[in-house]
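Task 17 of the worksheet. Students: predict the tertiary structure of the chain below and write it out as structure tokens. Keep your answer in the requested format; marks are given for formatting as well as content.
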Amino acid sequence: MIFPIGDDQVHGGYKPIFTYLFLGANILVFLYQVMLGIGNNAFVMEYGSIPLKIMSGQDYFTLFTSMFLHGGWMHLVMNMLFLWVFADNIEATIGNIPFVLFYLTGGMAASLAHILFNVGSTIPCIGASGAISAVLGAYLVMFPKSKIKVFVIYLFSSIFINAIWFLGFWFAQQFFSVFTSSSTGGGVAWWAHIGGFVFGAAVGWVIKQRSVESSLVA
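Model answer:
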């Protein structure tokens, strides 16, 4: 198993204020979930995004609130690690407010992708991974040659991998898992990961094209 612990940083640009605010918000909400104890189940049912309800025209607000809920410590830690490694470069490049809009819209797009493939599900979908997947998609397009520092547990050491290989493999893994995993009783919302990533890649491509066009005009 490998996981990212760092990357090439964008020098200059906007300070990644909202990247850290999203980190803090997710952690605080999860701590509140822990404090609820057994009441957390009702909390997740109320604020998690349930496909059947969304398809019935109910609880649209959960497309937003579900992004800040997590199912356990490992779920939170892995999501926040990916957010910390990849999101700051996106925010530094596109700006603070555009990043907020991108992150939230990416999370909602990811939730809608999950709902589209699970229209009758009554299982709440929660987690920041959809929005973070959008960040990963944009990162792959905008910084394909960036060096990602990953920690290899089996070797107990770190190595550097180009973003295009690390994130390309990550996306392939999500897509492959759709056909090899069962989510009938809950689990990972693979389509949310895929939908978020595709959304982020599309936005990243538009941003990159505009940057190229601006350079040509200048």
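Marker's comment: The chain has a mean pLDDT of 93. Strands lie at 2-7, 147-152, 157-162.
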